[in-house]
Amino acid sequence: NVSRNSGAYITQRFNSGNVDKSTSVDASSALPDISASVDSSPLLDAAASIAVSVPEPGMVAGAVMSFLENCHTMLDIPYWGAIVLTTIGIRVCLLPVAIKTIQGSARMAVMRPEMQKVQDAMTKDPNKDDTRVTLRYQNEMKALFIKHKVNPLRAVLWPLFQFPVFIAFFMALKEMGIYYPGFATGGAAWFTNLAAADPYLI
């Protein structure tokens, strides 16, 4: 029966009948020294230094990477299929945002001729510097926005809402080859290496 004792010693107990003998052996002499058999070549040293210096991915980009990896492993599809599936999923989730953006642009296009008339009338008005006249034209503009259900702030925010999502997806794809080596061979056709830039810029 061999058991570890404190520090660098191994205690061996030999039980034979009523005789109990124990001897202590220095572990440094009992265990083989494998440090000499490890090849400390410059290539291994460089690989170790690179592994240590790789930074942790950002929280959002890391979540995208984990999702792609789960699609790849759980659905048993290649990485390029996981990217296509995730892209379609993101597009479907952001479809209401895209519809709102298109609706806002269409309403703005319908309202633009009436808004231009108000702006032209204000420009030609000789009393345009009067505060009361300016206020009247501003109220007319507000009435147009209410009439056509147009919110200028929303027209700007809807496209900006999609921007962080696609930036996170782009950063995840750019850095995924660092954390998942199989990503380099997970492509198809001319883009077999998904960790490299497309040489054809397609």
Account of the protein in words:
This protein has 202 residues and is mainly alpha-helical. Strands 1-2-3 form a 3-stranded antiparallel sheet. The longest helix has 30 residues, at 95-124. The relative contact order is 0.10. Residues 1-31, 34-40 and 46-55 have low confidence and may be disordered. 60% of the residues lie in helices and 9% in strands.
Q: Calculate Rg over CA atoms.
A: 34 Å
Summed over residues and divided by their number, the pLDDT gives a mean of: 74
The succession of helices and strands, N to C, reads EEEHHHHHHH
Lateral strand order in the biggest sheet: 1-2-3
Termini gap: 67 Å
The low-confidence runs, each spanning 5 or more residues with pLDDT under 50, are 1-31, 34-40, 46-55
Shape: rod-shaped
Fraction in helix: 55-70%
Structural class: mainly alpha
Individual helix count = 7
Q: Please give the largest β-sheet.
A: 3 strands, antiparallel
Strand residue percentage: 5-15%
Number of beta-strand segments: 3
How is this fold's topology laid out?
Blueprint: E1 2-4, E2 9-16, E3 19-26, H1 27-30, H2 42-53, H3 59-74, H4 79-93, H5 95-124, H6 131-147, H7 152-179
Antiparallel strand pairs: 1-2, 2-3
Helix pairs in contact: 3-4, 3-7, 5-6, 5-7
Short key terms for the protein model shown above:
single chain, mainly alpha, 202 residues
Quick structural gist:
The protein is mostly helical. It has helices at 27-30, 42-53, 59-74, 79-93, 95-124, 131-147, 152-179; strands spanning 2-4, 9-16, 19-26. Strands 1-2-3 form a three-stranded antiparallel β-sheet.
